UniProtKB/TrEMBL annotation:
Pfam families: CN_hydrolase. This is Putative amidohydrolase. InterPro entries: C-N_Hydrolase (IPR003010), C-N_Hydrolase_sf (IPR036526), UPF0012_CS (IPR001110). Residues 1-246 form the CN hydrolase domain. Keywords: Hydrolase.
Length: 264
């Protein structure tokens, strides 16, 4: 499976419409890939909390529709990153109306999966203050027939989520993020840890640039089920193109059957 990881950089000077068109253009340059992945909250601004209300959209809003067009154009599955979702007719258990929602589109532009971020970052501010928490573990079939599992950024710090995903058959973790430069070494370490401990392929797509006063960490990466970094970006805008053999998951689990020894 050929994967394109688009490490999008942006600042505060670009409108949502301009950024959406630029991101769609980058997707449309990835013809020949099977899966294209964008970062978390790239349209709304990962740390631009003050703009989330006005930039919230439904899952069939302008951003996702443009990404669907790009997916159809190149005939590839597109993980469109995440949006600030406002369903319009739903309020969560905490009384909020916003979610951090990832959207995956197939090669025809049809929506095949959505995932609402379970672990909200902010320690009482930011996401926990403004957004509801997701509740569902979400998996889908990837273009090569492997089982992909969805999570987002801060979720990466919670290994029990990934254990739940492998118990449901996951072999590939797809993780969009808006992870800051201040903690980028945590990002790099945790991507490898999740790959190694769960013997899965990990596709981590981070954000670059500086917005809302926060420098983003970049260093998107694809990691093998043995913890080997197959490709890693730098700190700026970059597209990784990686050929991934997901059959290595079964081989890794057969050669070193650690998962069979789980007790808890």
């Amino acid at each position: 499976m050929r994967i394109a990881v688009i490490q999008l950089a942006y600042d505060d000077s670009e409108s949502v419409a301009e950024r959406t068109e630029r991101a769609a253009g980058l997707v449309e340059q990835q013809r020949g890939h099977d899966l294209v992945v964008l970062p978390e909250l790239w349209s709304a601004g990962g740390f631009d909390y003050r703009s989330w209300e006005e930039r919230a959209q439904q899952v069939d809003g302008d951003v996702v529709q443009r990404m669907a067009q790009a997916a159809r154009e190149i005939g590839a599955m597109v993980h469109a990153g995440s949006i600030v979702e406002r369903p319009g007719d739903e309020t969560g258990p905490e009384g909020k109306e916003l979610w951090n929602t990832s959207v995956v589109l197939d090669a025809t532009g049809e929506r095949v999966a959505t995932y609402r971020k379970i672990h909200r970052f902010g320690f009482g501010g930011g996401e926990p203050k403004l957004m509801e928490a997701g509740e569902d573990v979400v998996l889908l079939d990837l273009p090569d027939g492997s089982r992909g599992a969805l999570s987002t950024c801060y979720d990466l710090r919670f290994p029990e989520l990934y254990r739940a995903q492998i118990d449901q058959g996951a072999t590939v973790f797809v993780i969009p993020a808006a992870w800051p430069m201040a903690r980028v070494e945590h990002w790099r370490l945790l991507l490898r840890a999740r790959a190694l401990e769960d013997q899965c392929v990990v596709v981590g797509c981070n954000t670059a640039g500086t917005h809302a006063g926060t420098e983003m960490g970049g260093h998107s990466a694809v990691v093998s089920p043995t913890g080997e970094v197959l490709a890693e970006a730098g700190a700026g805008e970059e597209v990784l193109s990686v050929e991934v053999d997901t059959s290595t998951v079964a081989k890794a689990r057969e050669d070193f059957p650690v998962l069979a020894d789980r007790r808890l």
